[in-house]
Write a structure and sequence with these properties.
InterPro entries: CHP02284, DUF2383, Ferritin-like. By secondary structure, the protein is mainly α. Helix content is about 85%, strand content about 0%. It contains 5 helices and no strands.
């Protein structure tokens, strides 16, 4: 597997962590507005994973189909913390914002070191990644 494909697969895994976390948080919160937001954010991650997977498959490689251990730990931590505090929604929003930070930083790092073909794909996807990050950051700040 080339460095390019490995890099794309790492981004897929990190993004899938976010997608799964949003799906999980959707099921855990009671606020219907947050449920709708989390559903939308999960769908955004699905579309991003699809775009990255197409690039991997175009290079005759298998796209990653899992997530990361760190992503699973973040979800378990959020569940534990949510059970201990009174504001479950704010807990999930804060943890999802941290997941967005992780995704954004991974994409920024990859964009700096990517080959031209991959760099074009990442540059095209960065506005969506930043928009998702900013959306959760703003929500977190409004809930504090």
């Amino acid at each position: 597997m080339t460095d390019k494909i490995q890099q794309l697969n790492e981004l897929i895994e990190i993004t899938r962590d976010g997608q799964r976390f949003y799906q999980h948080a959707h099921d855990e919160v009671k606020d219907v507005r947050l449920q709708a937001l989390f559903r939308d954010m999960s769908q955004n991650k699905t579309e991003l994973i699809r775009a990255l997977s197409v690039k991997v498959a175009a290079n005759q490689q298998k796209p990653a189909d899992g997530g990361t251990f760190i992503g699973k730990l973040r979800q378990v931590y959020a569940d534990t913390k949510a059970n201990l505090v009174s504001d479950t929604e704010a807990t999930y929003v804060a943890q999802l914002e941290e997941a967005e930070d992780r995704i954004l930083h991974a994409f920024e790092d990859a964009l700096e070191s990517a080959e031209p073909g991959v760099q074009a794909l990442l540059a095209a996807e960065m506005p969506k990644v930043r928009a998702s990050h900013d959306r959760m950051r703003n929500l977190k700040q409004s809930m504090q």
